[in-house]
Write a structure and sequence with these properties.
By secondary structure, the chain is of the alpha+beta class. It has 5 helices and 3 strands; from the N terminus they run βααβαβαα.
Amino acid sequence: HGKGRHGYLHCRSGLQSELSRRWRANSELHNNFLLLTIEDAMEYGLFGPGRMRLEVRPRLGDFVAVSIGRKTLVSPSEVEMFKKPCQCQGAHGSLLSEEMSIPFILLLPDSSD
């Protein structure tokens, strides 16, 4: 789950520490992505303010991997597409300032009608 700049990882029961160990051992992953438990990500406010709805929690899995640089996670089916520079228009959803500073426009209905 997720999309490129962040991904949600689901482990088989009891394998969370093994995934974490392997993540740290892989320098490409460890140096380019922050691996957080979902609980830590909630504590840091990555899912927004307030409490998460209980029905949402199971969908998030065990970990969220968040890009801390320019790298993007891709699935095996996306590898060829991402090798071609012109095929990927961009990715977002990480912690870089340009990804977090998103313009917002609010249009309110005209109350004079």
